[in-house]
Amino acid sequence: MYHVAPASAFLSSPTINALSTSVTVAPRVRSGHYSPTPISRRYPGDDTAIAMAVQPLIECTLINSALSSSAIDIASSAVFNADNIKVAFNIATFFPQLPWLFLILLPNTDITKKLMGGYEIITICCLVHFFIVVASISQPEGTAPISEFANVFDPSGDPQSAMVGMMQYTNFVSEEWSHVLTWDLFVGRWIWLDGLRRGIFTAHSVLLCNLIGPPGLLLHWLTCVLVGKGLPGNETIKT
Fold it and tell me: Per residue in 208-222, pLDDT tens?
């Protein structure tokens, strides 16, 4: 809620007083002749007149600022709300499934290479996750109390129970779920790319990566060793 201060609060402000001492007073008519008032001369009686002249400008500025802030708040609440978090959660859940199918069932086709060779799909997943994060922290309840989150990293306590407790917060679940799915797809794509580069079968490893994450990467490394290709290096893909 925004409050606009009354105009009287500005009549005696330092800004008004400063303006009253430096403003040039218009020429005055004296006995039929124009008598310009020196700039350096100060008329104590002009303070109120100057303040009254400046007062509407200050009030308009404050009102416009309050209205702009209110409009931003309204727009934010229309975008970053619980309903849209739920929509983003569904997108994070179902959007990656088609790319997974291509990586598993059609790893060597041109359509899969075109679809997953770039970063577009991964970027979309990252943006969906980022939206959930921003929308969640914009909510009154946020994602989860910081104190509870800190308990997860407290070795003297019960980190597992603390993590279970945080799962009662809907926004936290949405953030963590999209977080996990995005990274799983990122690693699955890396396994697939390594298989293409070195001629290694990857469907089983990518499938396991989709299902339970890190074990899929371990399976890929094991496959690399068993087929005599060795563990992947850090060299870039040659085009």
Answer: 999 999 999 999 999
